[in-house]
Write a sequence for this structure.
C-alpha cells in the first residue's frame, strides 16, 4: 500500500525558499521508511549531543547545529589538508502529512544524528482478523 | 585496482609508466573510485611533535577499520556488509560501508608509534615524529 504520493523529505532551495546552508557544508542525509515510520540519519561527525537543535514548524523539520566548544590551540597547528570542518549548519525537510509530529525522537551515535519520525497510528498497516460467527 | 594486473601488449617501459601512474593515483586517494559509497573526508594537521589525520567516517565500530602501513603508505579501509533491511529507501546521500583511503606519510614519522582512536564518527590517527626530527639540528660549540 502506498501512503504517500509525493516524495517527502526532498527540499530544493531554489524551489521553495528553504534556507539551507550552502552545498559545501550541508550534511548528507539518508532517509528510509518502514511500516512504523521514517528514519532520518544525518552525517555530522565530531559534534556533541548538545550542539544540535531540532525544530518543527508547520510540517517543516529543521535540523541545525552550532559547535559550542571550538577546539583550542588549532591556530598553531599547520594544516596540510582540510576537507571537513565541525561548522554550523542548517537543513530543512518537509514532512509528509502522515507523520505523528508529537512523537519524533532523536539520538546521536558515532557521528550520526538519528531522527525517528513515526507515522500516525491509524495509517500504520494493521492486520484485522474478523471472526466468523 | 588489482596491483598485479598486467596490461597486455604494452612494451615494458610503457607498462611501468602506466603502473606508476596508477600507483600515484592510488596515493592521491582516488583508489575508492566509485559512486556507490562515500569517500570519507580527511583533515591533516601538523604540530611540533606529531602529525594527525582526522577521517570523518561516521556510524561505524572501532573493529570495522583496517589500518595497514606499507613502506610509507598508510591505508585506512572499511569493508562491511550492508545490514539487510526491509526499509524502503527514500533518500540516499551517503554510504560508509566500503571505502579505502591512502596517505603517503612523511619520513619524519616514527612508524612504530602510530596510534588510532575512534570517537563521534571521527577516526583520529596520531603519527608522532621521530626524536631527531623534533629536536632539529644540534649546535656544536667550538672550544
Amino acid at each position: 500500500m502506498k501512503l504517500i504520493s509525493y516524495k517527502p523529505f526532498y527540499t530544493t532551495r531554489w524551489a521553495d525558499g528553504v534556507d539551507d546552508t550552502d552545498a559545501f557544508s550541508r550534511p548528507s542525509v539518508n532517509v528510509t521508511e518502514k511500516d512504523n515510520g521514517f528514519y532520518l540519519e544525518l552525517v555530522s561527525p565530531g559534534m556533541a549531543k548538545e550542539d544540535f537543535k531540532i525544530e518543527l514548524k508547520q510540517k517543516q523539520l529543521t535540523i541545525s547545529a552550532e559547535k559550542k566548544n571550538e577546539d583550542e590551540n588549532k591556530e598553531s597547528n599547520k594544516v596540510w589538508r582540510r576537507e571537513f570542518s565541525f561548522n554550523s549548519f542548517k537543513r530543512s525537510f518537509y514532512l509528509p502529512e502522515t507523520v505523528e509530529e508529537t512523537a519524533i525522537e532523536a539520538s546521536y551515535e558515532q557521528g550520526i544524528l538519528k531522527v525517528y519520525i513515526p507515522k500516525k497510528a491509524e495509517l500504520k498497516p494493521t492486520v484485522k482478523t474478523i471472526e466468523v460467527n | 585496482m588489482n596491483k598485479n594486473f598486467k596490461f597486455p601488449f604494452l612494451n615494458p617501459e610503457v607498462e611501468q609508466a602506466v603502473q606508476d601512474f596508477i600507483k600515484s593515483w592510488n596515493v592521491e586517494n582516488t583508489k575508492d573510485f566509485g559512486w556507490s559509497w562515500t569517500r570519507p573526508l580527511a583533515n591533516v594537521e601538523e604540530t611540533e611533535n606529531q602529525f594527525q589525520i582526522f577521517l570523518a567516517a561516521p556510524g561505524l565500530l572501532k573493529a570495522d577499520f583496517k589500518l595497514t602501513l606499507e613502506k610509507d603508505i598508510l591505508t585506512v579501509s572499511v569493508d562491511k556488509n550492508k545490514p539487510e533491511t526491509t526499509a524502503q529507501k527514500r533518500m540516499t546521500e551517503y554510504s560508509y560501508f566500503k571505502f579505502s583511503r591512502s596517505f603517503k606519510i612523511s619520513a619524519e614519522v616514527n612508524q612504530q608509534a602510530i596510534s588510532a582512536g575512534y570517537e563521534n564518527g571521527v577516526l583520529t590517527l596520531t603519527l608522532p615524529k621521530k626524536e631527531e626530527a623534533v629536536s632539529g639540528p644540534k649546535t656544536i660549540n667550538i672550544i
Remarks:
- Chain B has two domains: 1-30, 35-82+92-135.
- The interface with chain A takes residues 38, 41-47, 51, 54, 56-61, 85-95, 118, 120-122 of chain B (CB under 8 Å).
- The first strand of chain B starts at residue 41 and ends at 46.
